[in-house]
């Protein structure tokens, strides 16, 4: 069995079942946790999604967020106050995530840092004997994504990818329909990210504000002069720290495209787009259309990012559409689906988890809380097969986005070898599979 076939089998099996480095300290096996043993958690990155991570842990039985970590002490103090107000409990603060790794009282970490920190933080956590929940995308580039997988395997750690739709009963039901041939032979998936993304302007450069450790924020990336166009959210729109919207919101959809089609990484990739709306500091394309071809499987993925006024497709602005020779299956967001059968588009089966709260990220059993519950269950059992979003799928779904971005940046059709995870006779493209890491925040060649 080739390595690519093995990876595809891993995805299928996981879907069917639900699916300078630090010195390594002595590891306490996670299976030592009993049902009544408290799991101590640290949240890394607390500006955006990190707030949902705090809640995701705090609603779990016998799980306590004991430490918040962020390079910005101003944010930390505000979140500490918010934590006290909401939970009537104290929480420790830490700016340097390396001290989190050294703290043996912390059992699990969740990573909601900027993208360029994700894989290295997971690797350091695994080496320190901690289990990890990592926000999407799992990686900032393809090479480090594979290293993240290697670390989880070598150190036998539980790593969950933050794509909560994998914990949605409705989406799992939809995947079952695709596998059972409900819409016939499924040959194409389309991922949609039509989000309202305004101009970010150009804030210019300024001295680093008091309270921010900008060296830690920059971490493994190359350091640029400080600007509000990076800290805290708009780093998404640079290639140095983010991956554009295909590597932001889009990872939910790249993941579902691959899961639904039962494929790994593609052989042919092309991508085209650009900036058509705003004369601002964004570097990534506002509009991006990518096509991923799987000639051996006779399947194709189309992916589109739009930032402003647009139509919907099948009533969806963020989601997925699967095309079979007998019908169409539409996944809207994170937790509902519909089907249309035949030439007359007769309504078929549909399903929804329903609304559990006012937040789009906490809807139904497939929301963030449910995905954290799945992670904690796997941690207590020390059983990675329980995970709905295991580390290999984090690497692959993120990798699909990275391949589209590389094709866009080079402006040509690329040929990729999924077995070696390198391009075919294309040294220029291969250079974009990895970054130059800034010491001491370096991912080692040998994990």
Automatic annotation (TrEMBL):
It comes from Maribellus comscasis. This is Twin-arginine translocation signal domain-containing protein. One of its GO terms (molecular function) is nucleotide binding. Residues 205-257, 371-442 form the Gfo/Idh/MocA-like oxidoreductase bacterial type C-terminal domain. Residues 343-363 are annotated as: Disordered. PROSITE patterns: TAT (PS51318). Residues 39-162 form the Gfo/Idh/MocA-like oxidoreductase N-terminal domain.
């Amino acid at each position: 069995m080739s390595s690519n076939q093995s990876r595809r089998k891993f995805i299928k099996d996981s879907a069917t079942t639900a699916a300078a480095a630090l010195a390594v300290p002595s590891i306490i096996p996670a299976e030592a946790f009993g049902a009544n043993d408290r799991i101590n958690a640290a949240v890394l990155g607390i500006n955006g999604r990190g707030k949902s991570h705090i809640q995701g842990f705090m609603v779990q039985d016998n799980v306590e967020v004991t430490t918040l970590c962020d390079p910005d002490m101003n944010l930390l103090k505000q979140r500490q106050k918010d934590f006290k107000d909401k939970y009537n409990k104290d929480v420790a603060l830490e700016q340097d995530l390396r001290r989190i790794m050294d703290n043996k009282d912390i059992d699990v970490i969740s990573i909601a840092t900027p993208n360029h920190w994700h894989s290295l933080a997971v690797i350091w956590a695994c080496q320190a004997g901690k289990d990890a929940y990592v926000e999407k995308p799992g990686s900032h580039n393809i090479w480090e994504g594979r290293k993240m997988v290697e670390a989880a395997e070598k150190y036998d750690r539980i790593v969950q990818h933050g794509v909560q739709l994998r914990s949605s009963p409705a989406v799992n039901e939809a995947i079952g329909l695709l596998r059972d041939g409900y819409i016939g032979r499924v040959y194409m998936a389309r991922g949609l990210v039509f989000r309202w993304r305004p101009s970010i302007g150009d804030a210019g450069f300024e001295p680093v504000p008091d309270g921010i450790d900008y060296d830690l924020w920059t971490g493994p990336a190359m350091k640029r002069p400080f600007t509000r166009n990076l800290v805290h959210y708009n780093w998404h729109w640079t290639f140095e720290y983010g991956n554009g919207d295909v590597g932001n919101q889009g990872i939910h959809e790249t993941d579902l495209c691959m899961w639904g089609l039962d494929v790994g990484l593609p052989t042919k990739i092309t991508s085209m787009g650009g900036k058509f709306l705003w004369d601002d500091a964004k570097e990534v394309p506002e509009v991006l259309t990518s096509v991923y071809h799987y000639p051996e499987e006779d399947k194709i993925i189309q992916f589109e990012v739009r930032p402003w006024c647009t139509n919907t497709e099948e009533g969806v602005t963020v989601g997925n559409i699967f095309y079979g020779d007998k019908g169409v299956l539409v996944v809207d967001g994170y937790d509902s689906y519909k089907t249309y059968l035949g030439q007359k588009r007769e309504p078929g089966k549909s399903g929804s988890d329903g609304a559990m709260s006012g937040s789009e990220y906490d809807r139904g059993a497939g929301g963030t809380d449910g995905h954290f519950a799945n992670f904690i269950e796997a941690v207590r059992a020390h059983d990675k097969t329980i995970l709905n979003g295991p580390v290999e799928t984090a690497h692959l779904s993120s990798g699909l986005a990275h391949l589209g971005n590389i094709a866009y940046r080079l402006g040509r059709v690329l040929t990729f070898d999924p077995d070696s995870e390198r391009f075919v006779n294309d040294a220029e493209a291969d250079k974009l599979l990895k970054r130059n890491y800034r010491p001491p925040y370096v991912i080692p060649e040998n994990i």
